[in-house]
Design goal:
Helices cover about 20% and strands about 40% of the residues. The protein is built from 2 helices and 9 strands, in the order αβββββββββα. It has about 200 residues and is of the alpha+beta class. Helix 1 runs antiparallel to helix 2. It folds into 2 domains: about 45 residues; about 150 residues, Allene oxide cyclase-like (AOC barrel-like, Beta Barrel). It is found in: Secreted, Extracellular space, Apoplast. One of its GO terms (biological process) is phenylpropanoid biosynthetic process. Belongs to the plant dirigent protein family. Its main location: secreted.
């Protein structure tokens, strides 16, 4: 017995709905394969003396004093474990740490070679990290060290940040640095193609 016209219409509608749902799912899967942009604005608090010290002098250069920074020497290196906040205020809630080293990398300019990891402890990227390395002019508002990897929700992050000193209190050995981070994070897995193949196999 041939199906009635109403049954044919029902089958056609169901088929169209299935194809539409499949197309939407495919587009969502394809979109999930795109790197996701991440923008963070953080403030790093570097304290070089006093009870709350977060930066220590590891290596003292042995050559003549630096051409500009007369109290410093080429090769001077510090280790840091600086507090990070989302507000430009040392008393604001901590959302992470900046851990690593920086070195006076030029004999004639006020330039640091920076190699640090930003460890996030609050917010949507809590327990995630990203790594930063590059050349930073101490008083340069346009320094752009690279973001070259991460962990957790920031795994395989890539991008850059602007490193800008926003406050310096010489008498207290305190520096606040703004980190304006622009990076992209690839999806956890590029499973779109596998999902589509599995769906086709299940239909066939």
């Amino acid at each position: 017995m041939a199906p009635s016209s109403s049954a044919k219409q029902l089958i056609a509608v169901a088929g169209a709905a299935f194809l539409l749902a499949t197309a939407v799912a495919f587009l969502l899967a394809a979109d999930s394969g795109r790197p996701q942009p991440v923008h963070l604005r953080l403030y790093m608090h570097d304290v070089m003396r006093g009870p709350g010290t977060t930066a220590i002098h590891l290596i003292h250069g042995v050559r003549p004093p630096h051409d500009v920074e007369r109290s410093a020497y080429f090769g001077d290196t510090a280790a840091i474990d600086d507090v990070v906040t989302e507000e430009p205020d040392a008393g604001a809630r901590a959302v992470g740490r900046v851990q690593g080293t920086y070195m006076l990398a030029s004999q004639h300019e006020e330039v640091l070679a920076v190699a640090v990891t930003v460890v996030l402890t609050a917010g949507p990227y809590s327990s995630s990290t990203f790594s930063v390395a590059g050349r930073v002019g101490v008083y340069d508002d346009k320094a752009e060290p690279a973001v070259f990897g991460g962990t957790g929700r920031l795994r395989r992050a890539a991008g850059y940040l602007t490193w800008r000193m926003v406050e310096l209190v010489v008498s207290e050995g305190y520096v606040m640095v703004e980190l304006d981070v622009h990076m992209s994070v690839p999806p956890v897995s590029a499973a779109g193609g596998n999902w589509w193949s599995s769906l086709l196999r299940s239909i066939n």
